[in-house]
Design goal:
541 residues, alpha/beta, Rossmann fold, Glutamyl-tRNA Synthetase, domain 3, Helicase, Ruva Protein, domain 3, 4 domains, 3-stranded parallel sheet, 15 strands, RNA-binding
RNA sequence: GGUGGGUUCGUAUAACGGUUAGUACUCAAGAUUCUCAAUCUUGCAAUAGGAGUUCGAUUCUCCUACCCACUACCA
């Protein structure tokens, strides 16, 4: 049994999006599960589409997710150019492997599996448009290659002259006619394709002396002794070509097994998740924030406040399931549970609500100190210097109400600054619309405020509410008891608990919702509480 | 257009010929509470359509529909 070796082979043509991260993750999980090696290879054979910073972005993203390569362009982004004991398969950047590919391409020409093609881009464009005009599709294969300009149709000496004098030729694969390629995919099973529908793909370009994806991919996977190729479904159509290439090289016995992952689809409508969707629909599609060369900014999961563990977890569950009802997995837990035969076949629509839910679950699992450390910078941005221990106490009370650390502030600003405005903030958003529901004319607040005249939590009614005698009762209660006995005091006096408490709440929080009164008083202290009572009286009284 | 792939509640998915078709997210209702959350309980909601194989099809086969990918000297 060969040692498991898998690779993630992104192209640095832009930021890695979440679909790419998922592919990397599944490769990583598969490698770890099988005690194998996870290789990161950079496929930068397209000199025209190179984007500065993209490779660094890819590496940083993987690092943030904790999906660290064992081998290859490593987590520090270090260039590994020379093979060594640790890196026998180096270099791992295809642009640095340039000399390797030509020799393999020419080997295929010699063995009759490929040929030189001299057609210019314009010639081919002409062929395509001509075919299109007559309602057909131009395809460079057995049906047309005999009429085109290549080493199959030209005399040997002329071919040699062309090879010498021109630098725009390519090497194309000689796709056999009418052969059925029988393939086996680890997630899709048995697949058959007839080669007559396939074309003579370009394998190598003289212009930049670089291979195309197909050649580089096969050669490198072979040389790097990759055992399983786990990649996106968009590669399925080129699988027959890849099979045929392994065969042409005589490598079929060591050919890796293939697994084509289902695509990640956009949340609404159809089609795969694309760059633009996130900002249109209010969620990130990239792991990290990315600014392109035009200065456009794309948001990232990291900057949006997602924990990397949550991001990895939610990604893992898109297209794979453990076969149990467990949903929360650490990275190690995923390694343990992962298996390719639990990977689904159909595309998975990404659901932002579920993503938030995952983060909420992780937020609740964090300890208060850790969350406090994350919250303090947010507070500092608001100009608030708070004692660490105090923030820890705050966090322990509010963390269950949030999905993200950033929300801590909006949940309870009143624990740090005294309210100066009073409003209906916190009244259920749905309350207003529910009132309009003819079937349910009853005000949902009525269960608390049986008396409609004293059910005034809309901003314009704060004043009216304020004129109640409850303020006097509340003040009396606060002066004569403390946070723990406040409730008892009010009860003993026979006062309406809810009304008095809510009067206090308005004074302490500035709104009609929030933590328990006792919790708030414990945090801000009795004196501050009384000060706020005093202020609200001046303000509204 | 051609080729390949796909199709279970709105979404992610379970059920690898026999279940009242399960779970989670979302949404709604109820319980609880000093409010709001949280929590708990309940509810809404699906096998794309049609043939066939079978005692029995979500599951196997075929056809139709729809969706997706690929169809570059891009990956």
């Amino acid at each position: 049994m060969k040692k498991t070796r898998v690779r993630f082979a992104p192209s640095p043509t832009g930021p890695l999006h979440m679909g790419g991260v998922r592919t990397a993750l599944y490769n990583y999980l598969y490698a770890k599960k099988n005690g194998g090696t996870f290789v990161l290879r950079i496929e930068d054979t397209d000199s025209h589409r190179f984007v500065p910073g993209a490779e660094e972005y890819i590496i940083e993203s993987l690092k943030w997710c904790g999906i660290l390569p064992d081998e290859g362009v490593d987590a520090s982004g270090k260039v590994v150019e020379t093979p060594s004991e640790k890196h026998p398969y180096a270099p791992y950047r295809q642009s640095q492997r340039k000399p390797i590919y030509r020799k393999y391409a020419e080997q295929l020409v010699r063995s009759g599996h490929a040929y030189y093609a001299f057609d210019s881009a314009e010639d081919l464009e002409l062929c395509r448009s001509r075919a299109e005009n007559s309602g057909e599709t131009f395809i460079y294969n057995y049906s047309t290659r005999k009429t085109l300009c290549n080493s199959l149709t030209m005399p040997q000496d002329e071919v040699e002259k062309m090879l010498e004098s021109r630098n725009d030729w390519t090497i194309r694969f000689l796709m056999p006619e009418n052969r059925t390629v029988v393939m086996e995919d680890l997630v899709r099973g048995h697949i058959e394709v007839n080669t007559s529908t396939l074309d003579d793909k370009v394998l190598w370009k003289r212009a930049d002396e670089l291979p195309t994806y197909h050649l580089a991919n096969i050669v490198d996977d072979h040389l790097m002794e990759i055992t399983e190729v786990i990649r996106g479904e968009e590669w399925l159509p080129s699988l027959p070509l890849h099979y045929l290439l392994y065969e042409a090289f005589g490598w079929q016995d060591s050919m890796p097994r293939f697994a084509h992952l289902p695509l990640l689809l956009k949340p609404v409508g159809n089609g795969k998740l694309s760059k633009r969707d996130g900002d249109k629909m209010g969620f990130p599609v990239f792991p990290l924030k990315w600014t392109n060369s035009q200065g456009e900014v794309y948001r990232g999961y990291r900057e949006d406040g997602y924990f990397p563990e949550a991001f990895v977890n939610l990604l893992a569950m898109l297209g794979w399931n453990p076969g149990t009802e467990q949903e929360i997995f650490s990275l190690d837990g995923l390694v343990e549970a992962f298996s390719l035969d639990k990977v689904g076949k159909s595309g998975a629509k990404f659901n932002p609500d579920k993503a938030k839910w995952f983060n909420k679950e992780y937020l609740r699992m964090k300890d208060d100190e850790q969350l406090a450390r994350l919250f303090i910078p947010v507070l500092e941005q608001k100009g608030i210097q708070a004692d660490f221990e105090y923030v820890v106490r705050v966090v322990s009370l509010i963390k269950e109400r949030a999905s993200f650390v950033q929300e801590f502030w909006t949940i309870a600003p009143y624990l740090f600054i005294a309210p100066r405005e009073y409003s209906a903030h916190g009244v259920k958003a749905g309350a207003a619309s529910r009132q309009e529901d003819a079937k349910r004319p009853a005000d949902p607040r009525a269960k608390v405020y049986d008396d409609a005249a004293t059910a005034p939590f809309l901003a314009k009614d704060v004043d009216k509410f304020w004129k109640q005698e409850y303020y006097e009762a509340a003040l009396d209660a606060m002066q004569n008891s403390d946070a723990d006995t406040l409730e008892d005091y009010i009860r003993q006096k026979g006062l309406p608990l809810g009304k008095v408490m809510n009067c206090i709440r308005l004074a302490l929080t500035g709104s009609s919702s929030g933590l328990g009164i006792a919790d708030i008083m414990h945090l801000i202290g009795k004196q501050e509480s009384l000060d706020r009572m005093d202020y609200i009286k001046q303000r509204l009284g």
